[in-house]
Every structure is written in structure tokens, then in C-alpha cells.
Amino acid sequence: MPRGRYSLHDPHVHTPFAEEHFHCAPGPSGWRYVSQLTTPAGDHRGSVDLALDELGRPIRMELHSAGWQVRGAALDGVTWVRTDPTGAHATEGNVRAHAFTGTSPAFLVATTRLLRLTPSASATRVRLVALTDPVLAPRTVDQSWTLLNREAHATDNGPLTVDEYQVTALDTGEQHSVYIAGDVVLAAPGIELEDLESPPSAFA
């Protein structure tokens, strides 16, 4: 069960805004990721609880940020309920999309589990509902993912396979790279892996 800490920052101005303390693990029904977020000053900022089925679809997602809460799952596309900080108002949403995304590294791992790309495969298009910080406002985005390279690196615990993905935003054409080993993000825009207590889990 990997356990560690990511630092999150604005990918454009590089201002840090959170640290994400996480643990995750594959299980008989898929994969689960749980984290708590704190501000740079150490105050509680939010939380992530994401469970995937064996095909990489979100069977349960719960996000908290700035008093807002979103619960969602793959149902007729993806369906969610967003609740305001007072708890007095809840709005439902549904989009013909494949999964969710957001600032948490969990969503990058989840997308790779959904797409199951191989280095020889061409680019694959995916539609996601992005839940944007800090109020978890939903926005539908279209991306293209390509697995550019898969490379094994020697470590004290045996070889570590690192996948390099190229992600393209189809509305702007902007591209960036994402590096993932198993179920841990090593590097991505706005994300740095600061501490890892145990090796990443290897998916079958």
C-alpha cells in the first residue's frame, strides 16, 4: 500500500497551495485512493476518496474543498451531486463522459487505469468532468492521451517501471507530460512527489 505526500502548486506561476497526504492500494474490485489535503500553513484544506472498479471506472468518488462537497460515480456517463458549504443546497449533474478529473494526482492514475494504453498505441481521446478548485465547479473537458515510453529503472526493491504519457487538451492544443509508476504519480504539471514510504503497487 503506497503511502506518501505530494505537493501541489499552480503550474503556471508555481505558487504552492496544498500538500496531499495519501495512501492507495489495488484490491479485488479495483483500486482505492484516500487523501487529506492541508494548506502550506498546515491547516485542513480538503479530502479525496476515489474508488475504481476493475475496468478503471469511478464507482465512488467523494471530494471536499473549501466547505464544498461532490459525490459522484459512473452512471449513465458520470453523475454527481454538489453540495454548498451551508449544506442547504445540492445540485445534480450528469454528462456523457468517461470519468472525473481534478487537481489530485489520483485522477491521473485513474485515467491511465481507464485507458490501459500501450506504448505502440495511437493517441486515445477521453472526455472527463473536471472538478476545479477551490469550489469543485464541474467543467467538461476533452483530452488526448498517448503512452510515449515505458522504461524500467533499477531500485533497491527491484525494477520500477515508469510510464511517460503525453496529454493534450483538445480545446487549446496545450500538451504536457505525466510520469507514473504503478499507482503513484512521479511528476506532472503542478504535482511533485515529495515523500513515498513504500513502493508503488503494480497493476496486473
UniProtKB/TrEMBL annotation:
<protein>
    <recommendedName>
        <fullName>Glycolipid-binding domain-containing protein</fullName>
    </recommendedName>
</protein>
